[in-house]
Design brief:
Shape: elongated
Strand content: under 5%
Number of strands: 0
Structural class: mainly alpha
Radius of gyration: 33 Å
């Protein structure tokens, strides 16, 4: 029995892969409407994340300013 060389094994695997690729059948193609809806969904998701980041930024700014205001009032009250 003759041993197979690495080249022969690689060629067999390549042929098998090509046969498998030829047997693949595309069963469903996305319609244009579904593609547009998908794109709009992604745009809304990005806008939602931007809105959340803005609200978090504004919220932390208000919180920090509120705490700073209270500390300044306490300092002024202690000095008077």
């Amino acid at each position: 029995m003759k041993k197979k060389s690495l080249f022969d094994i690689a060629m067999e695997q390549k042929r098998e892969k090509q046969n498998n690729d030829n047997n693949i059948v595309i069963t469903h193609k996305n319609s244009r409407i579904s593609v547009v809806v998908e794109i709009i969904g992604k745009i809304f998701k990005v806008l939602f994340y931007i809105l959340i980041c803005l609200l978090l930024t504004i919220g932390t700014t208000v919180l920090v300013n509120n705490e700073l205001r209270e500390q300044l009032i306490n300092v002024v009250n202690l000095n008077l």
